[in-house]
What we know:
Blueprint: E1 3-14, E2 17-20, E3 31-32, E4 35-40, E5 49-53, H1 61-66, E6 74-82, E7 85-86, E8 96-100, E9 103-110, H2 116-119, H3 132-147, H4 152-155, H5 157-168, E10 174-178, E11 183-186, E12 196-200, E13 208-211, E14 214-217, E15 228-232, E16 242-243, E17 249-253, E18 256-260, E19 283-307, E20 317-326, E21 331-336, E22 342-348, E23 352-366, H6 388-394, H7 405-421, H8 426-440, E24 442-443, H9 454-460, E25 462-463, H10 465-478, E26 483-490, E27 506-513, E28 517-522, E29 527-528, E30 533-539, H11 542-545, E31 548-555, E32 559-571
Parallel strand pairs: 24-25
Antiparallel strand pairs: 1-6, 1-15, 2-14, 3-7, 4-5, 4-6, 8-9, 9-10, 10-11, 11-17, 12-15, 12-16, 13-14, 17-18, 19-22, 19-23, 19-31, 19-32, 20-23, 21-22, 26-27, 26-30, 27-28, 28-29
Helix pairs in contact: 7-8, 7-10, 8-10, 9-10
Amino acid sequence: MSTHLMAMCFDSGASPQVHFSEFPSVVGPEKVPCGWGFGWYPEGERAASVVKDPSCRGDGAMVRMLQDWSHFRSTIFLSFALGAADKRTQQDTHPFQLRHAGRDWLLSHNGRLRDYQNKLPLGHYEPAGSTDSEHILCWLGTQLREAGACRLADLGWEKLRDLFVEINQLGTANLVFTDGLDLVFYHDQKGHHQVLWTRRLPTERPAHLRAGLIRLDLDDAVEHHRTAVLFSTLPPAEEEWLRMEPGQMLVARRGALIWNSVPDQQLQAVAPAPRQSPPAPSTRVCKVIHETVYRYHVPVERSSHVFRLTPVSDRNQEVLEHSLEISVSGTRREYEDVFGNLTTSVEVESPFDELRVVSHSLVRLHGLNREALELPNRRTSIPLVWMPWQRQMMSPYLLPVELPENQLLELSDFAMAAVERCDFQLVDTLIDLNQQIKRDFEYVPQSTTLNTTPYELLCNRRGVCQDFSNLLICLARLLAIPARYRVGYIRTGVDYSNQVQSEASHAWVECYLPWIGWVGFDPTNGTMVGLDHIRVACGRTFVDATPTSGTLYRGGGGESLFVRVRTEVVGG
């Protein structure tokens, strides 16, 4: 017989149209054409919906339903297609369904087992049909019950793989298993049938994916914004997919791989890295020289300028020395702006054709304690609840950018996918979003403008540090997490993919965490802010924190700009 397993895991609710690209012909009087089954969890509910047709002849109401089920939105889909084979009944057609711990569990199996009734004794659950696959599901349900697991993650991925290996010892087994939250795919130890997988980003095309007997239509505008992890036991017709190794198990949640049983295997930056720890408590002394030069073909006769170039001095960063050299003379005034930035303003009334500003800083940085992010007896889960006076104080950092409602909903879905991947844990969610932007978005200079919105970046997936920071700020604020824009410098070494950032000012995000304070996240590099980041100015957006700005009242035609930043470590 020819069987085909396919499974899909989306970051947010999706409803791909499903088409059967071909149906096997009848073979012999006792044979029937393709039988198939689909399972999904409508709108993320705990109850699953399963549709089966044991003897499909290529058309019918249920086949047409698969092609138009936009109201059946789900993040997880399972499909099973059986080629010409012995006639099957409804209770013997995949996927199989089990109710345990207040939720439905779905399983499909590609392979055949021997002596499974004796080697896998049943307990609390009994199958309705007579297949080895449903027997597996009932046996797994008993193991979950005995372990007190209400979801797959409670059991543990190592333990689940051990159970799959025990099943695999009785024959051949490609297994797909889900509780509606996580999608697990296990590949037979002897490589029975090939299993391929891919992770499809919204910017990737084509929108029609074909794998074996099934063709998926993701051409809907909503589906274009979905990230998906796809598994298939039959090779795709066009796209490059990755091959699973025999005995390998992968776990997907909300459009990302969260566990891989082959730890040394490189998944091409697909799986999110484990939770990062900030640098161990230590110190580092850095020297920074920031040079900015404006040149004009037509001299400037009168102008005013604002410079935010003095690094922050607080418990995490000490300014040991700082000087600001300005090549033109004028009325100079220093003050602290409303965001706490040390600011220098200069009023110039004498003509000039070149303005050179050089900032020299010597700063000692202090590492952040990991324990600071893990305070006991404090609420660190989403949603955050703010007291009225807290919300009023934080209101400038809680209001997302003004965008059409449908665009904000798409951004909110993107943020909530990370929340669900991280079990609603606050710090884990921010780390996940921070790493996802680094993983799924491409750093491309001059690919955006100052007017590029977070939604446009979400669609195009290309930008620079300013765009990535704007996106993370918007996502955090949609989750009611106060977030602000931070400008400073970064010391990039061999561990950073983008070396250019150390030659100019850098931007990242600071989120306000209850009982902790402002914590920095650098989405351009996918790291938390530590001993490589030197903080200078902050604000609601980049406008509030721009290092240099000004107004030319007369003259100043043909402006050119030169910026150079040099950062080096001079001590510990």
